[in-house]
Design a protein that fits this description.
This protein is an alpha+beta fold. It is built from 15 helices and 9 strands. The chain is globular and about 75 Å long. The N and C termini lie far apart (65 Å).
């Protein structure tokens, strides 16, 4: 209990004032936890407010269209979270009459809810004594207890979950879980942690062994893949363009984009014209093709870097159904395309 008492005391003195800490409503906690997966609070907070305003209850979220949800999520990344969020809201609203499951095991059955999220909801909303383990918890425990087992290995996941469970304050798991995550976020930070004022500095093995920077240990990620995107931005008569919706299991599933030709390297105009997909879109010679950005926009994702060029196509004929350029920003699009549109549609350019 010494660890727990020290930690909770620190938390009560230093915790941030966050909206989801003022409620035990499962919908609010679930929404915040899904949004904060792989996302900093500073980035996720504005989205949380937007969602709560647009969808005050799980029923409101369930009744929204997929495009509406994806548009509101735009810019937050990891879009599978938004799709799972929407699917789960419909399940809770329609199959469970709006009532979220109230145990760790039953929460795990919800789409998009894993060990961490189920533990957080169960402990915060229902006071169930289950320990959360996220990036902050891994860092705190690995340093204080000098654990060098890789956190993204099967053995590491099991070891840290076991230790977090052992340390958990069983009488007040909600406060304990929030405290250890907050401590990792604010005090035991990845870079430049506040070791001199740390309440655990007399117990921290990493501080004693000067291994703060080496912990936690993480197995190397897979090699980053480079991809080369060429978007065809049609600017047709009557201010129309062409949008397509992405599908499949790749990135940005469900979002909209301009017709895309992916190449193995950066290519020029003549090379682009040789692609079958380009020929399918543009028949004959009655068009003009202009490169919008000579230097590719480099968009970095977790396991891939996208080198993107936008090609402006002026033509009198539309090979597919068109949408008004003025309406394009109403569609949910990747940030990469959203940034391009903001520039392209600006008064300065047009």
């Amino acid at each position: 209990m010494v660890f727990s008492n020290i930690l909770i005391h620190w938390y009560l003195q230093n915790k941030r004032d966050l909206p989801w800490r003022k409620t035990h409503e499962p919908y609010h906690i679930w929404l915040s936890e899904i949004m904060l997966q792989q996302t900093r609070i500073e980035q996720g907070l504005p989205y949380y407010y937007k969602f709560i305003e647009a969808y005050p209850t799980v029923f409101d979220l369930a009744n929204a269209s997929t495009d509406e949800v994806m548009k509101l999520w735009q810019g937050l990344g990891y879009y599978s979270r938004a799709r799972n969020l929407h699917e789960t809201s419909k399940y809770v609203a329609n199959e469970l009459n709006g009532k979220f499951p109230d145990t760790y095991k039953s929460l795990l059955k919800l789409k998009g809810v894993g060990d961490y999220t189920a533990s957080a909801i169960a402990s915060i909303c229902y006071n169930e004594p289950v320990a959360v383990v996220d990036g902050n918890v891994y860092r705190v425990l690995s340093r204080i207890y000098g654990i060098d087992t890789p956190i993204n290995s099967t053995a590491g996941v099991k070891e840290f979950k076991s230790l977090a469970t052992e340390l958990l304050n069983k009488k007040d798991p909600a406060t304990f879980n929030q405290a250890i995550m907050e401590f990792g976020a604010l005090h035991c930070k990845p870079q430049n942690p506040y070791c001199e004022t740390c309440p655990f500095n007399d117990k921290c093995l990493a501080l004693k062994d000067s291994s703060i920077k080496e912990l936690p240990v993480k197995l190397k990620k897979t090699k980053v893949k480079k991809r080369y995107f060429n978007y065809l931005v049609f600017d047709l008569e009557n201010n129309e363009t062409i949008l397509e919706q992405r599908s499949g299991k790749g990135i940005w599933n469900g979002l909209y984009q301009f017709p895309l030709i992916e190449s193995e390297k950066l290519i020029g105009k003549n090379e682009l014209k040789q692609y079958e997909s380009f020929i399918e879109f543009i028949e004959g010679e009655n068009y003009s093709l202009e490169l919008y950005n000579e230097d590719p926009v480099i968009h970095k994702l977790s396991h891939q870097h996208l080198f993107t060029r936008f090609w402006l196509v002026n033509s009198n004929e539309a090979p597919k159904k068109t949408v008004s350029l003025d309406k394009v920003l109403d569609y949910p699009v990747p940030v990469l395309i959203g940034n391009f549109l903001n520039e392209y549609l600006s008064d300065d350019y047009k």
